[in-house]
């Protein structure tokens, strides 16, 4: 949406009486109930009466009308002295929307289908990336009049690393486009053959993630995900803390198999129904305040639970697969069960702490009794049964792979994922006549941009290893004086948490994993001691409203204040730091 469009939108908005429902080019504007509370407006489509994001006119970033309230101008729609302050408030709304849109564009992540690029950081990054690449080349190339000390191929690889890292962090261009830089740069520089350069883009982990995405979409489309979440919440009872626990556990378990964003989209309506119902039934101010705190804790629980549970399995979130692929390329075999030997204990410690932080420390709802009408879902449909059966067989095959890979050594996790996804294109749907469980059009559900970024990071890591740059980085850092291993781990985890608050965790992991992995041997540490905690830290960062797709989705609902999310997220960042360091020291050290 352009600034001119926002001006037109605001001019039209100010003319509408609070009690009317009027057609508008952007949709239908409906006022909230007449109460002493500031009026809440919502934009609804012509056929669906629900809050829906408005498709911007000139932007790929979804902007909802709820951003008006988030912008901090509730007085615009107050029932009191509205006329005298309306113009000044309109200017505040306009600037707030423009600012929010700019932040959204600069912080868009790869898990969102329409991630965008823009802002001052991107403009700086487009200039700074080549400058840093040139500086790295001048300081390390054997023919440059500077430090020297690296072979020519390693020096050029370092320059490409500097360029890609800068562009990934600043979102100078689309991160997926940055992921294609190695294909061009290494080919032109003659650093490796064509097969060496392009083979990482067809790595087993690429097929694993693609097949897993199709399986997850089948679960979501058939309704298995929503049924599971509703069933888990149904047994929670009427205690606010137990309901919050159920919501966060459901979010965490779903995100172990389904993308964090899809998990949040599944859980958000359930959380809104539970929390919103408690607010609407409040009988006095004290009960309304407790219900509002409960609603806030539920919505934050959806976002935070999805991020926490994403690390449970290899397919849960992209950084996991980046770490696993690097470890395998380095000769360290990491299976599904091997990964879960660390992820399950770490999550089992962290998730209850997160529940207590939200439900007891920050947003207590003591004395509140949760009432809800359970939805009668009926028996499993045929599509639900088929989706669940295919997924269960795939998970069983992944977990038992060590038992049969000696007989069929060509079978890897990616092969299993592709076979399972392929079967869904042949199995008929029981609810859509003449269609299969998956149709060719569903290939659009595969996050191709993430796969390209994967390939770019894997190609960069393989080239760093092949040219000796990884080993050289480890030697240089080790020569500066070895810190205690616990100190190295703490610095790494803290840095990754902070970095992931301002940049895509996928891009940060793709950039950091090969460097961190190279650092470990020089310090006398096993690579997994640093690599696995690094990607956990990249996923367990919670403070920024637009830092992760789940945070952005919950924040866009308009029911969570930015200061509440940042306060809770910052405290949770501190807790996650302690959990990751302690569990890595106990289980990996």
Describe the structure in your own words:
Helices cover 64% and strands 2% of the residues. With 589 residues, it is mostly helical. It has a domain at 3-107. A hairpin with a 2-residue loop joins strand 1 (22-24) and strand 2. It is globular. The N and C termini lie far apart (51 Å).
Q: What is the share of helical residues?
A: 55-70%
Poorly predicted regions are: 1-116
Alpha carbon gyration radius: 25 Å
* Strand numbers in spatial order across the main sheet: 1-2-3
Content of β-strand: under 5%
**What is the rounded distance between the termini?**
51 Å
The helix/strand class is: mainly alpha
Q: How many alpha or pi helices?
A: 25
Give a count of the beta strands, DSSP E runs of length 2 or more. Answer: 3
- Succession of helices and strands: HEEEHHHHHHHHHHHHHHHHHHHHHHHH
User: What is the typical, i.e. mean, pLDDT?
Assistant: 76
Largest sheet: 3 strands, antiparallel
What is the approximate shape? globular
Q: TL;DR?
A:
It is built from 25 helices and 3 strands. By secondary structure, it is an all-alpha fold. The N and C termini lie far apart (51 Å).
Key words describing this protein structure:
589 residues; mainly alpha; three-stranded antiparallel beta sheet; 25 helices; 3 strands; 64% helix; 2% strand; disordered N terminus
